[in-house]
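Sorry to interrupt, but I need a hand with the structure work. Leave the record below and I will have a look:
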Amino acid sequence: MARRRQIYEGKAKILYEGPEPGTIIQYFKDDATAFNAQKKGTISGKGVLNNRISEHIFTLLGQIGVPTHFIRRLNMREQLVRQVEIIPIEVVVRNVAAGSLSKKLGIEEGTQLPRTLIEYCYKDDALGDPLISEEHIACFGWATQDEMHDIADMAIRINDFMCGLFAGIGIRLVDFKLEFGRLYDGEYSRVILADEISPDGCRLWDMVTNEKLDKDRFRRDLGGEVEAYQEVARRLGLLPEGLDTTVLDLDTHRKKREKEEG
């Protein structure tokens, strides 16, 4: 079968023309980037794990009434999704101080925030995805007021659900990013959840040890990225067929690294 036409290639995914009008095939890569692609690398098998994790979370969100672009997973690395017009705003939901929030405001990493914080960034790699306000969004017409209400409502609902989902498997949902798109029906459009939800775009810490189970392991040169992503998939009950299903202990990885460095 001939390869479908490539529409777009991003840092972690490639989008291809879908089999039916209004659909797209989303392919998950093993490429890893950090600091607006200033740091690049590969996490072997990451695409397979992110595909499964994102499929699982999007399916569960659909079951509680959150509209998403997800249709079905096609194979280990690809899923069929609805074609949407991406709103150029990255929505960051924060429950615990970490990353850029700690750095900018001097709040100790790991501090529980007094309330869930929603931040908006303008999606533009060349500009470094700058932090923006709702005033910026309204001024430049990136989204309407009604769309922003829908986005904020969905972000809070998704956060409530995911906090419970991850707490149930001993993981603290520190923060995560979301993207939304417009799904058109004639001239009418509605906002739905798009992109992916995976350890690439979430900060996930073990509730007991505070071990990082996300892309921060790559950002901060901690090593053990594959084991961390596998651990999240294992706890969610999603390890792909054929992979070892024993507990992937990051403590073992750490001791091995210390031995090699020593």
In short: The chain has one domain: 6-236.
